[in-house]
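Running co-folding for magnesium ion.
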Amino acid sequence: MTNESFKSGFVSIIGRPNVGKSTFLNRVIGQKIAIMSDKPQTTRNKVQGVLTTGTSQTIFIDTPGIHKPKHKLGDFMMKVAQNTLKEVDLILFMINAEEGYGKGDEFIIEKLQNTSTPVFLIVNKIDKIHPDQLLLLIDEYRGRYPFKEIVPISALEGNNIETLLAQIEAYLPEGPQFYPSDQVTDHPERFIISELIREKVLHLTREEIPHSIAVSIESIKGQDNGSVHVAATIVVERDSQKGIVIGKKGSLLKEVGKRARADIEALLGSRVYLELWVKVQKDWRNKMSQLRDFGFKEDEY
Ligand SMILES: Nc1nc2c(ncn2[C@@H]2O[C@H](COP(=O)(O)OP(=O)(O)OP(=O)(O)O)[C@@H](O)[C@H]2O)c(=O)[nH]1
Ligand SMILES: [Mg+2]
């Protein structure tokens, strides 16, 4: 890059679970790199998405929703979210316009008091509320923290995203292009594939299952005919959960496979043969050794 005024920087997206952080990231990147669901605590690890324009490169960091941890995995998720507050150029604190100010936000604002990084308040899901309600909500938050900008958006419908991107660019420092223009994430395909499979299980199951699963990719092999063979294991905590994930005569697992295969084919741009297994590993969320096996490595963050 010879252009001296090129800007680049890191922007972290934080907020309570389920406010739409991952939906926003995917919308901005224009490709699905972070999984989304209507269940809280969908995102477990940070996901970086890279947006390159003619004048700037922004690396967005999607983080797990901030909540009170109940197990080691939860502790890990909170550390990931909090560590991303350090060494970024801008923080986007996202809230759900439908919910008012709550304890969770209070906790996040406390954390923000310790940083000198500029913070935007992003009011998401404005498609769900009346404009009058929006003004009241903004007033409620404005007094609690010196936000540099307050930007209402709908990540789902795309409202006001371009305006927000322009405001973000204004806050980025001059800097080099860190990633090639066509690279949209720094995550290996392996990770995204395991996440896409996990997302389908989240969508097709209820209650305790979504939080009890992990997906591990055993192998990804290109075939002579140009297709790709993926073998993956869905890990659950109890035998009863294994039964649920497999479903009657294997019906649920089959549906997971069908939906995940379609997404993985879109990601890889080739035909995919997906082989899925289900395995029980008791209480894996509380075992550090198993968390590491599933790629939750603290020292990387
Ligand atoms: N109506 C509406 N729904 C939205 C909007 N943005 C996200 N959602 C929905 O909100 C739910 C949660 O979205 P996610 O993107 O998974 O939320 P998240 O903040 O990443 O959640 P965690 O990873 O659990 O912290 C999904 O069902 C989305 O479709 C929006 O602008 N409007
Ligand atoms: Mg998320």
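Result summary
The chain is about 35% helix and 20% strand.
The mean pLDDT is 90.
Job closed.
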